[in-house]
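Task card 7
Instruction: Convert sequence to structure tokens.
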Amino acid sequence: MATTTRTAPSKGWRSTAELPLRPVTPYQARPDTVAGRIPLTLPRPSVPDPGFRPSAFAGEAVPFQVTAFREGHDLIGVHVRLFSPTGEESLHRLSPLHDGFDRWCVLVSPTAQGIWRFRFEAFGDDFATWAHAAELKIAAGVDVALMRESGALLFQRAAAEKTRPTAERRRLEAAAARLREATVTDDAALEIVRDGDLAAAFAARPLQSLVTIGATYELLVERERAGVGAWYEFFPRSEGATVQQDGTVRSGTFRTAAQRLPAVAAMGFDVLYLPPIHPIGERNRKGRNNTLETNPGDPGSPWAIGSSAGGHDTVHPDLGTLADFRDFVNAAADNGLEIALDLALQAAPDHPWVTEHPEWFTTLPDGTIAYAENPPKKYQDIYPVNFDNDPDGIRAEVLRIVRHWIAQGVKIFRVDNPHTKPLQFWEWLIATVTDENPDVIFLAEAFTRPAPMQRLAIAGFQQSYSYFTWRNTKAELEEFLGSVSDETADFMRPNLFVNTPDILTEYLQYGGRPAYRVRAAIAATAGASYGVYAGYELYENVARPGSEENIDNEKYEYKLRDWAGAQARGDSLAPFLTRLNEIRRAHPALRQLRNLRLHWSDDDAVLVYAKHLPAALSPDAVDDTIIVVANVDPHSARQTTVHLDTRQWGVRPGDSFEVVDLITGAEWTWADHNFVRLDAFHEPAHILHVKKEQR
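Output:
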């Protein structure tokens, strides 16, 4: 029985190969077999666990892929039928990847939030099968009459379909008649076989047989910020902090921190992430550089949450009031910034939870409560929550806290160490919160093993920190970028932070300013989301001895920085970060992840990749192609030959095209093999835009 279709009144998608909607009559499946008449296997997007949905963000170019084949030499076609959250239906034709694995693919960009459904449909492509055979046989003088009559019958069959436009049906009838005319030569018959207009008509409305309909799958499409954004992190207590006459530091407030918002926005960032803003415990408070000794005025770690002043639903009195925080959120919005708030489910020894709910923690045999450890690090100022003690009570309290901050205007939560809490807790919390507020986003600070990192993403985290900070060589970056842009892209979105308060890699410690520049360039162009912790633009690169974090770590003290002075002296990376974010906003190809393709160079320190977004999927309906060539050795100048597969952006191998370097403004004529020289001390990376005019 034919399925019914309806046309969408307004599109919630963009596609590279959309077809007119048509009814489809499936081939009668056999009840005693699992496989369809034309097998459809390995569908994507997908997740390893069928109990969860793959995900995308609104406007993401999603590859819909499937493996499909049939016996013998007859050709097949494959469609994907999409159903939007409102039930609008669309049909899209897949193309073979010609990768030797019978994979088919089409790019579709869903633009509407919600749960989409999709299914793959394979069919015998009767016109393509005939055209392929006729091309060979008529040219060879084999079975010519049979080929011509077979084509005439096929054209008549197509012309009888009332869903085709009238002019097209007449053209098909005329083609059938000409194939039967005795006066039409074989060469003229071959012209009909090769007629581009006829081929286009059959591509749009193929003659189908053995139609096989696959299972229906779901795809969760979330708002764009779930996958795209430039993040900036600062400690509000440091912004506007002042040194008193006695040498102690007076904390900055939400009001003084708001004065920094225009500068963050001017650099082009989209999200401002704040470490915990709650009262900080007094007991076991850490001093400078994570010591157990505190001096008067030491503010303690913001992650040691809770004191007599309150807990997770309270703001630190030094920062201001809850009303001040709401004003800060509104001021950020006025500057085009969203606030991301840290959600750290742990408690200082004097958190109200400790006395009100001691059962929420782990009690040791000696009667003390276990503090947090991440050997060799010890956090005596933090008690981890035991989620197996009163799980219902803990769930209710955390949900209350999240709802509380949503009510204050927060829609993004950066979750501290989620891999140290039960996975099922996060699945429940994220589902509960996003059912109520679909725009809420959770970022997982999951610096952990691949399995838990990926499972957190599958369970619902929209973004995740990643191994990017420790992937610095060309080989490491190629492996990492190839994986996150393909293997895990259906369910995990990495946020490529270049640094954090806890992470100052050896690459940054010893790579000097070139290291800071090239890491920012790669993060901003390879990732759809990337992040910077304050101080990066000042090249802060001195580590605490024996560690991988900054000395005089801001987690344990106020950090007074001279932003304006550094920029006036030319000692700030802020202009470069500003330019990177300008480039990201101007080029939609960079606001994608799955479109990243690795290319090649002859130098083991020169990384090459490109991103292309076809006009059909671009919000401005213009092709956009960016090529990035980066010298990842911050200590040298490198010169080499770069090798490109230009077919990715529609340029034939050997043909030339024009590029402009979006950092320096230099222009060159390039082809598929190009000489480059990148001096780490001058400009370690090319960010090249392929100009539309090609020659």
